[in-house]
Amino acid sequence: MTNTLFPVFLKTDTAHFLIVGAGNVGLEKTETLLRQNPTIRITIIGIQIHLRLKQIVDSYANITFFERPFEENDLAEKDFVIIATDSAEVNLNVRNLAKGRGIKVNAADQPDLCDFYLGSIVNKGNLKIAISTNGKSPVLAKRMREYFTAIIPDTIDENLAVLHQFRSNHKGDLQQKLKDLNTITAAFSVQKKPGFWNKFRRLFAIN
């Protein structure tokens, strides 16, 4: 089966997320969003709220919580919906109403209801890597995130700053700029480090 997903990095400064469900899954999705942008605007709807999620809601002015069942009007002025309830009926209803308004949906552990997935994310300063298994194995995506987080040095952000300055100050044309950037970043090429993929294969027992 071909993986037709197209990775997109969203600017979330003006986005408004709706999370339906305030239990363990709602907590996980909220923490995932906050790790990428602590000021992201989130509205959470739930009949009951997880204690840790309540603490988060109380700590962030950009998060609003309503302790009640989902209502269709909750979709007003929302950009994305994350469905995190344990009711298949509620999940399908929220999804259908959101689709009717043209709002993209993610539903926890229900890939058939999803327009997008929340992949595992590697954060190293300005370097951000998103990992997806097309919904097949989130746990492998998690292990891949742990692996790349460990092997990519924290100093990579310093390298990015230097490269950005070089790129900004370069006086040559585009072709020369690309040539020079390829030359100075050649040290990062895994083709020059054959042991890299051997270590990767041993880690995941890949033949």
Automatic annotation (TrEMBL):
Which EC class heads this enzyme's classification? oxidoreductase
Q: Which organism is it from?
A: Flavobacterium profundi
Q: Which GO terms describe its molecular function?
A: ferrochelatase activity; precorrin-2 dehydrogenase activity
Q: Where is the Siroheme synthase central domain?
A: 125-146
Q: Which NCBIfam families match?
A: cysG_Nterm
Q: Which keywords are on file for this protein?
A: NAD, Oxidoreductase, Porphyrin biosynthesis
| Annotated Gene3D superfamilies | NAD(P)-binding Rossmann-like Domain, Siroheme synthase, domain 2
- Annotated EC: 1.3.1.76
In its UniProt record, which GO terms are filed under biological process? siroheme biosynthetic process
Task: Provide the organism lineage as a comma list.
Answer: Bacteria, Pseudomonadati, Bacteroidota, Flavobacteriia, Flavobacteriales
Note whether NAD occurs among the keywords.
yes
Biochemical pathway? Porphyrin-containing compound metabolism; siroheme biosynthesis; sirohydrochlorin from precorrin-2: step 1/1
The record lists the catalysed reaction(s) as:
precorrin-2 + NAD(+) = sirohydrochlorin + NADH + 2 H(+)
- Specify the superkingdom: Bacteria
Against PANTHER family, the record matches this protein to: SIROHEME BIOSYNTHESIS PROTEIN MET8
Question: What's this protein's name?
Answer: precorrin-2 dehydrogenase
